[in-house]
Amino acid sequence: MTSSYRGIFAHKLEDGTIISVQCEDTAGNGNDVPIDVYRQRDIQPPAESLPDQHQFKPNR
């Protein structure tokens, strides 16, 4: 099943461990998703390919 969410950036600890992913739905609403749920729902792109919260630059 394809998720209506897409990951936009990862929340990481200082050691690089991803704890959650900030996602956006098709209407542009944001939601913080725990990493285990993100992977279970197969939300794309892979969490490891996302910038962290400090590197993220919105397109707006």
Descriptive account of the structure:
By secondary structure, the protein is mostly beta strands. It has one domain (5-49). Helix content is 10%, strand content 35%. The protein is built from one helix and three strands, in the order E-E-E-H. Strands 1-2-3 form a three-stranded antiparallel sheet. The longest helix has 6 residues, at 35-40. The radius of gyration is 11 Å and the shape is globular.
Q: Uncertain spans, ≥5 residues at pLDDT below 50? A: none
Overall helicity: 10-25%
Strand order of the largest sheet: 1-2-3
Mean pLDDT: 91
What is the percentage of strand-forming residues?
35-45%
N→C terminal distance: 29 Å
Q: How would a textbook summarize the main sheet? A: 3 strands, antiparallel
- Count of helical stretches: 1
Radius of gyration: 11 Å
Q: What is the β-strand count?
A: 3
Structural class: mainly beta
Q: How would you summarize this macromolecular structure in one to three sentences?
A:
The chain is 10% helix and 35% strand. The model has no long low-confidence stretch (mean pLDDT 91).
How would you describe this structure in keywords?
single chain; 60 residues; mainly beta; 3-stranded antiparallel sheet; 10% helix
Task: Draw up the topology in text.
Elements: E1 5-12, E2 18-25, E3 30-34, H1 35-40
Antiparallel strand pairs: 1-2, 2-3
